[in-house]
Amino acid sequence: MKSEKKIGIALSGGGVRGIAHLGVLKALNDQQIFPNRLSGSSAGAIAGALYCSGHDPSDILEIIIQTNYFKFLRPAISWTGILKMDVVEELFLKYIPDNSFESLQIPLTVAATDIKRGRVVYFSEGALIRPLMASSCIPGMFDPIEINNKFYVDGGVLNNLPVEPLDGTCDYIIGVNCNHLPVEHTINNIKKLIERTVIMSMNYNVYSRKDKCDYFIEPKGLARYGVFDIKKSKQIFQAGYESALIFIEENPNIMELASLKSKAKSQ
């Protein structure tokens, strides 16, 4: 009997825009396409962790809406950030109580940036929640996260689409970017200028890895949503869902993956 091939999905960072990943995962699952492995940076790491722990994408959306992650953040008395993330550890424990990579139903790799050594670090074993916090720790906004006497910030700083952990271990890689930047003819204030510049940098980081993906899904126009625009969660989820269905329709060969029956929990 021919062995089943493995599907890996890499999820980008992007703040609240990362909710689009849940819509994409929902669309893929509805078409019977299930990953064997996931990797993610920042918001992609959080979405991936909740999904890999067994939560349905639609249920994760409701968790995000009901809990409002950002209300858990507290001011930091520090020169390295204006907010502390430590309190969200309790929130993650509520939905990932075993707090370990080994307890996940689907293997996951989380990317974070070692700020002192200036390099990407991939976490895939041991305690899960601290690496999740590190991966989503926006520099300057949050205090760096300490793990084993090293300090980490957002994985998207150096790798916003961590396909490397999937390369060589998966037969097919699906990359998902939640920061599509529309053409913008008018930049009329400093906030828009900074946001657009940051997203351009993030996307350059992503597009340099696009060729490593067998399929690349990028919901259109998500950059119009702010990093903390939690009130638009349902619209962002739906944008991801609809974009994935359109992608499948335009790339029917992806349906070959559905026949692989690669849902990790069945292994």
TrEMBL record:
<dbReference type="InterPro" id="IPR002641">
    <property type="entry name" value="PNPLA_dom"/>
</dbReference>
<dbReference type="InterPro" id="IPR050301">
    <property type="entry name" value="NTE"/>
</dbReference>
<feature type="short sequence motif" description="GXGXXG">
    <location>
        <begin position="13"/>
        <end position="18"/>
    </location>
</feature>
<dbReference type="Pfam" id="PF01734">
    <property type="entry name" value="Patatin"/>
</dbReference>
<dbReference type="GO" id="GO:0016042">
    <property type="term" value="P:lipid catabolic process"/>
</dbReference>
<feature type="active site" description="Nucleophile">
    <location>
        <position position="42"/>
    </location>
</feature>
<keyword id="KW-0443">Lipid metabolism</keyword>
<feature type="active site" description="Proton acceptor">
    <location>
        <position position="154"/>
    </location>
</feature>
<feature type="short sequence motif" description="GXSXG">
    <location>
        <begin position="40"/>
        <end position="44"/>
    </location>
</feature>
<keyword id="KW-0378">Hydrolase</keyword>
<feature type="domain" description="PNPLA">
    <location>
        <begin position="9"/>
        <end position="167"/>
    </location>
</feature>
<protein>
    <submittedName>
        <fullName>Patatin</fullName>
    </submittedName>
</protein>
<feature type="short sequence motif" description="DGA/G">
    <location>
        <begin position="154"/>
        <end position="156"/>
    </location>
</feature>
<dbReference type="GO" id="GO:0016787">
    <property type="term" value="F:hydrolase activity"/>
</dbReference>
<keyword id="KW-0442">Lipid degradation</keyword>
